[in-house]
Model the fold of this input.
Amino acid sequence: MGIKEKILTKSLWVFHASVGSCNNCDIEILDCLTPRFDVERLGIQLVGSIRHADVILVTGAMNKKALKRFKKVCGQAPKPCFIVAVGICPCSMHMFKGSYSMQSPLDEIMPVDLYIPGCPPRPEAIIAGLAKLINKVNK
Amino acid sequence: MAERKIVPIGPYHPLQEEPEFFKLIVEGEHVVELEIDIGYNHRGIEKLAEEKHWDQITFLVERICGICSNSHPFAYCLAGEDLLGIEVPERANYIRMIIDELQRLHSHLLWLGLAGHFIGYNTIWMWAWKAREPVLDLFELISGNRQNYAMLKIGGVRRDIKEEAYPVIRKTIKNLYPTLKMFQKAIQDDPVIQTRTRGVGILKKEDGISFGAVGPTARASGIDIDVRRDDRYARYDTLSWSVITRNEGDIHAKLLVRVLEMIESCSIIEQCLDRIPKGEIETEVRDIPQGEGIGRVEAPRGECFHYIRSDGTNRPVRHKIRAPSFVNVATNLVTVPGYTISDAALTLAAVDPCYCCTERSAAFTLTGEKILKGEDLIRLSIEKTEKIKKIYGNDKK
Done:
């Protein structure tokens, strides 16, 4: 990994993009920010704009209508940028496989740096996942 | 008159948890019109349900929406039991009510937090979500998962609430009362919350009725409806509780209705724990015969409706879902215009919109591109009429 990625890991700023989820993973991501889990103590912060993001947390199985917008949004992110699939839906489509309005798992659309499976993953799992991402980059 | 400009919100916007697109048409700072474009979350669940086994559908409908992930299976199971014409055991009914009310607590606390966040009071957000954690712990204790509880099945419930869990539930609910009272006081007394929410985004009673608003959105506008009382499912009729209504119709009323409803929910859970009988938790269902059934449930956001039709095989022929947000989101068309852009964010959130619930329809062009605008559908309809006219015209000649 290059020096740029290493600098990023000091304080990860995450952006959360739902591309056809059921809200559960989105809630658990927001839950990470609230007093019990409080990821800001680890330097992880949820940002409002994609232009500030180091990590994009993708939740939900990719919807055909959202795909176009999502690609546009990803194009606006500063590079390097990590893409994390949160929940089983972006990892493998879960039970929405074969639906007419769904595209494909996320890794067939763009390279994914980290998978966090679970329906929904617990906040602890999300935090552990991001810690693994940092370790992976630093190695 | 100021020039008309368009302010786009979404689909990926810091304000929103889910992808949806609002087009605010503004004159100066005042919103004059609103266009809603959804479809970024459509998953084709009704169609998927036709390919799944009756038992698998309970898990599928649970994932319609993560927040009301008990209401959808509940309505589906009621529809199944309506089709079969069976009664579920008494204990199962009480377990269902406990889970449903816990879910209402978690949903309203979640919304309260987000509302606080939209006003700019992140303290309320943090406090409300802190109070929500013990409720999620209860879910974990009862079902093993913080969300998606998988508690229901046609004919009863999947797992029992153990005797040892009763005191834990009682203690958590008892500890929740002071927090809820504090929220109620904060909403009623805080001058900033008062100024931001009073007289903003008013939904008149007539508008509410004509849009078919349901749930807390309707009850805050003085429409006295609640499926728990009006349709009498489970054992709600044997408990003592009241339907909270307010007449103002503004955001303040919606806030207050939800907080007071949470206090009612706490009392319902306590009564359920007092009265829960011992016994079986499910009636055995071997197969689903031909027929059709409906189920209605009061979800945290309003009435949730499921319809199923069976042809005697092991999967439904048709499964229709009507989620509460579907009607409530449309009320934004009258509540947002006339106020400033800064109020729009809060007003849009005040109906507690859930787009995963709402996304029940989609239209495609031949090239595979999706369209969902009303005008497009109307245009297609007009074109079709033109075509038919032509055919008939040719026949006459």
About this structure: Residues 90-119 of chain B form the longest helix (30 residues). Chain B touches chain A through 42 residues (CB under 8 Å).
